[in-house]
Amino acid sequence: MVQRACDAGAQQLVADVMASAKANGVTVRWVEIYGVRRWGSVFHDLIYKTRALGYGQALFSKYNALPLSRMSNKEELVYANGSGKYVAQFSYEEGNSTANTSTVFVLYGN
Q1: pLDDT beyond 60 at 58
Q2: Which of 27, 76, 80, 108 pairs as cysteine with 90 (C-beta 3.0–4.6 A)?
Q3: Mean pLDDT of all residues in the chain?
């Protein structure tokens, strides 16, 4: 199940990502928030498909992605092309048990 999040929490997360990017000198023009249950690799698979469009992996990091301290156990994946365009995602687990755990994916780019 994949669902785009548009609630107040998602709006705050978008604002946090934009502020963090600006503070770190990273140009971010768009941010989308999704919740995923039982299919955690969905966005990893989709971002990998950008290779056919000339994008390649520019960054992969675990646990120290965008400096948003309230998120733990997160990872970030960035794909970029030769002209400076990029698409990226970071994900983290939300919930306190296997039955209630979902993955939050934050997609962003320029």
Answers
A1: yes
A2: 76
A3: 80
